[in-house]
Amino acid sequence: MDYRDTAEEAKFRLELREWFKHNIPAGWREITDPEGLRALNKSWHKALYASGYIGLNWPKEYGGQGLSPSFDAILNDEAGRADAPH
Question: Torsions phi, psi of 32, nearest 5?
Answer without folding.
Answer: -125, -20
